[in-house]
Every structure is written in structure tokens, then in C-alpha cells.
């Protein structure tokens, strides 16, 4: 089975796993599914995951990508972990507000603030 290239850039800072996207546009269903699987494997490798998803350089996000974020959030909560989102483009953030996902996720304007918010 051929291994496909990762859709994510992963960086560890102590117990915190920071994920950035390689794509500016997260719209393709197959890529979104791969992203979900990659994040799930990162989460499941931790006892109590601390995940920061950094949206730097992301211009577009599909509703399927939002669904994947909700699934990731639910999985992290099941494992008693913590999830933070950061650096979301203002236009994308408006979608979070309209869908009320800004109430579900802890969102920070900068990655350093998000890192500092982990307990």
C-alpha cells in the first residue's frame, strides 16, 4: 500500500502537540479524511492529549473540515485531553461564529497564547 504524504506539519513542545496544515485550502474530501486520521493517530498515542491546531496560512475550510474538527474535539474530551485552535483567518472565524462553533472550541488569536492556556 503506498504511503501518501502527510497533510500536516507536526511539532512537539513538551506535552503539547502543535499541528499546522500543509494546504491553504482544506476543501478536498479525501484530504480532510486523511487529516482526520493523522490527527486521530496523534491523539490516540497520548494518555491525555494536549493538541493545538494552528490555522496559520489556511485560507478556506469546508464544512466537512469543520465536522472533522468536531470529531477531533469529541475524541480529545473522551481522553480527558485539551484542544486549542489558533491563528484562524477572520473570514474563517466568521463561519465559526455563525455556526456557534466559537462556543465549542477554545480559540486564540496567536499560537503562543494558545500554548500558554494549556493546564
Can you characterise this structure?
This protein is of the alpha/beta class. It has one domain (8-116): 2-Layer Sandwich (Transcription Regulator spoIIAA). 43% of the residues lie in helices and 24% in strands. The chain contains five helices and seven strands, in the order E-E-E-H-E-E-H-E-H-H-E-H. It has helices at 29-44, 63-78, 90-98, 101-104, 111-116, and strands spanning 8-13, 16-21, 25-26, 50-54, 60-61, 82-86, 107-108. The strands form two sheets. It has a five-stranded mixed β-sheet. A two-stranded parallel ribbon has the order 3-5. A hairpin with a 2-residue loop joins strand 1 and strand 2 (16-21). Helix 1 packs parallel to helix 2. The radius of gyration is 13 Å and the shape is globular.
Q: What would a concise description of this structure say?
A:
The chain has 119 residues and is α/β, with parallel strands linked by helices. It has helices at residues 29-44, 63-78, 90-98, 101-104, 111-116, and strands at residues 8-13, 16-21, 25-26, 50-54, 60-61, 82-86, 107-108.
By CATH, the topology is Transcription Regulator spoIIAA
Indicate the CATH architecture. 2-Layer Sandwich
Number of domains: 1
Spatial strand sequence of the major β-sheet: 1-2-4-6-7
Overall structural class, as computed from helix and strand content, comes to: alpha/beta
Main β-sheet description = 5 strands, mixed
From the N-terminal CA to the C-terminal CA, the straight-line distance is 40 Å
Rg (C-alpha, Å):
13 Å
What portion of the residues fall into strands of 2 or more residues? 15-25%
Q: What is the tally of helical segments? A: 5
- Anisotropy-based shape: globular
**Helix and strand succession?**
EEEHEEHEHHEH
Whole-number mean pLDDT: 95
CATH class: Alpha Beta
Relative helix content: 40-55%
- As an assembly, this protein is single chain
What's the total number of strands? 7
CATH superfamily: STAS domain
Amino acid at each position: 500500500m503506498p504511503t501518501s504524504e502527510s497533510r500536516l506539519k507536526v511539532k512537539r513542545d513538551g506535552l503539547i502537540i502543535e499541528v499546522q496544515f500543509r494546504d491553504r485550502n482544506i476543501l478536498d474530501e479525501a484530504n480532510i479524511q486523511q487529516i482526520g486520521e493523522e490527527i486521530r493517530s496523534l491523539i490516540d498515542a497520548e494518555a491525555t492529549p494536549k493538541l493545538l491546531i494552528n490555522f496559520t496560512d489556511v485560507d478556506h475550510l469546508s464544512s466537512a473540515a469543520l465536522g472533522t474538527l468536531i470529531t477531533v474535539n469529541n475524541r480529545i474530551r473522551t481522553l480527558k485531553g485539551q484542544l486549542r485552535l489558533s491563528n484562524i483567518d477572520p473570514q474563517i472565524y466568521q463561519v465559526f461564529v455563525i455556526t456557534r462553533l466559537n462556543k465549542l472550541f477554545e480559540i486564540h488569536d496567536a499560537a503562543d497564547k494558545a500554548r500558554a492556556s494549556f493546564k
